[in-house]
Amino acid sequence: MxxxxxxxxxxxxxxxxxxxxxxxxxxxxxxDISALSGRxxxxxxxxxxxxxxxxxxxxxxxxxxxxxxISGIHRSYESALERLVALSFSVAxxxxxxVVVRAGSRxxxxxxAIDTPLPAPFLGWIDTVGSLLREAxxxxxxxxxxxxxxxxxxxxxxxxxxxxxxxxxxxxxxIEDRLYDLWLLLLAGLQAKPDARELLTRVGAPGPSCLxx
Amino acid sequence: MxxxxxxxxxxxxxxxxxxxxxxxxxxxxxxDISALSGRxxxxxxxxxxxxxxxxxxxxxxxxxxxxxxISGIHRSYESALERLVALSFSVAxxxxxxVVVRAGSRxxxxxxAIDTPLPAPFLGWIDTVGSLLREAxxxxxxxxxxxxxxxxxxxxxxxxxxxxxxxxxxxxxxIEDRLYDLWLLLLAGLQAKPDARELLTRVGAPGPSCLxx
Lengths: 213, 213
Hints:
The first copy, chain A, has eleven helices and no strands. Chain A is mainly alpha-helical and 213 residues long. In chain A, helix 5 packs antiparallel against helix 6. The longest helix of chain A is centred in the last third of the chain and has 23 residues, at 148-170. Chain A is elongated and about 60 Å long. The N and C termini of chain A lie far apart (53 Å). Chains A and B meet through helix 8, helix 9 and helix 10 of A and helix 8, helix 9 and helix 10 of B.
């Protein structure tokens, strides 16, 4: 029974994510989610109580994507800067391809219309990037004069801005090209010995970009 | 009569901006705008036709803020990089203090709920920053190996991301501190001879930050 309840919960989160991503929070009703998931409205209320809590469950599923991705990347690269850049491309692809991540992102932008507090997406990333940059400093790869904590905040701002623009201008189709170009700028300041294009090649980043901005 | 119509239009845009900024597009009605502006609903429909067109007028008034600000800065600094940094602080303060700018920004994030296309805010900034960075390159201030157009896109991403995080975490209260920290990272990559803190002092930027991120 436990397993079946979990399957139902997962199916409901997935159906809700698909609809929130396409139509937004206000444009999605419990009966739409019922129709897409093949579950009754009663089952939805039983598992989540209301639409707010279902939106929160989608945002939490979005957040749950990251720890496994982060530890996978930690096993793949010795250099902390390479790990950071590789991680950023994995995150960018998830924002482009993963409906739960896309839905969580759209719900966050609509948070003022949702009557329950949603967790802020930035603080965890600032910690993660800060740890990687401190390690890069210990490995002698970080430019002198930059505090890892300050640089981490700037990297997170730049990534989120890149994502916002990419979403607005082309529905994230060119997000990898945009991220490649962004790293050319950021690595010029971050690296003790700048070799941005080589580092991007080492982590298998697609590019160089032929994007007309 | 022309002057009076213009005054009415301006008052309506200002009242609408105040309400859109506070309550969002969906949370603001024509009768709220009528009450705050002291104008009849009939006057609102006469001047704007519907709520969508009034939202568009607020976004257009937001856009109209920038040309004068940009030309004011152009007269104040010889160095194109100094102009860029000074301009960014003026823009950040407008996002913090100017209700029309704040309203335009909120309407943009709610654009999918507004049944009329709103102009995209990024492309004009990419052009403006690109021109300044090309001039910085001619002045010998831009680091070699960075194409001004690519760097401009990254700077605009980073600024918009900083604004998004600042809005989400503290309603933009600390936007100047955040921007100061962002420039420490970006100038490390942009400047031919990095002296970020000195440049920030030369343009009168507040800081250094004592922000806990």
